[in-house]
Amino acid sequence: MNVVIVGADSRKFTEEQLRIAKREIASLLINYQANWIDTTIISGGCPVGKKRWYDISCDEWRDVDDVDDHLTVEAYDQGGIDTLAKIVATELWMKFIEISPEVNQWNDAPNCAKGFKSRNLEMVKMADILYCISPKCYNCDEWGRTGTDYDADNMEWSIICTKCKGTKSVWNGGMWTSFEAERQGKKVVRIVVP
Ligand SMILES: [Zn+2]
Prior knowledge:
The protein has a single domain, classed as Rossmann fold (3-Layer(aba) Sandwich). 27% of the residues lie in helices and 28% in strands. It contains four helices and ten strands; from the N terminus they run βαββββαβαβββαβ. The strands form three sheets. The chain has a five-stranded parallel beta sheet with strand order 6-2-1-7-10, sandwiched between helices. The chain has a three-stranded antiparallel beta sheet with strand order 4-3-5. Helix 1 (15-34) packs across helix 2 (81-91) and helix 3 packs across helix 4. It is globular. It binds zinc ion. Zinc ion binds next to loops.
């Protein structure tokens, strides 16, 4: 089955929250392995930060992939959940597919190069289940959050924090994908990192 993992990039998390998120991803993927489910992990190759190599053997980022025999993952170092999903899938030797945008913009480029929206829709289409991992509201520490209005013409959702009513303080790129997946009847699990 195809397990899609989306969520915020690293700029929205603290270091500690990223550690928690990584453990969360590991525990849910191990669960698929433990139940002998033939699983492919899919994430979106979020292009935030620098493309570097994460050295799994040493647990650190490298600027060049120059250590023989070390298992490394090429990914954006501030890619957040997308990058963590790729690292954890590799650590667990699970099948992994990256659906990366071809241009760093929401809509496709005039030459048809894939933007974020098409990238997201491609992942939704592939998903048997989609996990969206986000930090808590950075304005008020509230856990609960609510998707509200859907603007069908523009395919946009408003989302507010249930406590402080902030919008920007809870929004991240993975949420659009999670709402669209839900709208298309896919199974969606949202995880909030405290
Ligand atoms: Zn809030």
